[in-house]
Amino acid sequence: GKHTVNLDNKTADMRVMPLTLEMGIKFKLHVTISGKKINVSEVPELSIPEDWMRDKLELNFYKSEQGGGEVENVNYDKQSRTAVITFLRPG
Fold it and tell me: Name one GO cellular component term (predicted).
């Protein structure tokens, strides 16, 4: 619909338009599993800061419906494209 907005004693007519957002980034991981740690290799190279990649990895392995759990630490090495995910409890 149409809207009128007051800005600094001036009015501007505006119209609302839908905005399509891009889908999130999906990528495939190769993992080796032990009791408390998961070794992840072939982490894709993405143009995002390293702390964002650590957060993405943590969120991915925190998902309990996929057999994850509470993450204690994520050690990510951008150079070798590997990570070690350490869980709070073995399982």
Answer: cytoplasm
